[in-house]
Amino acid sequence: MTAQHPIDVHVGKRMAQRRMLLGMSQIVLGKNIGVSFRQIQKYERGLNRLSASRLFEAAHVLKVPVDYFFGTMSKADARTPTRRASRDLKCESADPALDPLTQRETLKLMRAYYRIQSPKIRASIGVLIKGLASEELSIRSSNCDGAGHRCSADSAGR
Question: pTM of the predicted model, to two decimals?
Answer without folding.
Answer: 0.58
